[in-house]
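subagent[fold] <- orchestrator: predict structure for attached chain, return tokens only, no commentary.
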Amino acid sequence: MVVGKIGKYTLPFQLSPAQVLALLGSFFVLLWTRRLWAHLPGLMNLLVQVAVPVAIAWALRHLRMEGRSPLRMGYGVIAYAFSPKGGVVGGRAYREPGTQTLRGNRIFVSPGPPMPARAPAAQGRSRPGADGARTVAVAPPRRSPRTGAHR
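subagent[fold] -> orchestrator:
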């Protein structure tokens, strides 16, 4: 889409809507900030006031970001910024299911027959609970120092 005619006036060249916005926007920004930069001799201030917006509009004509025009690229960036973090599934925002903490850190063993005197030791320490049942604390699996994998 290009603008070649404004009212009954035909422009000497065609401009895209992005170029018109850049031309007018940069012109007015330079006009409002003139106190900060307009310390040049003679007509150089006027040259900067006109040449910088024209140069920006000219550069914008040839600018392509991912094969898109600047307005379409801006729309894509805005759509991406406001899209759900996990994406969309079936038209709704996808939410990762929350993690569930396993709270069982003790194993309760009912009292059984007495253990032989020379039985191999369990992985954890055994101690009687308040009701007479044994509680065994289980050690986490060991990792190999070389590979880091569980043994």
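orchestrator: received. Logging for downstream: The two ends are 66 Å apart (CA to CA). The chain has four helices and seven strands.
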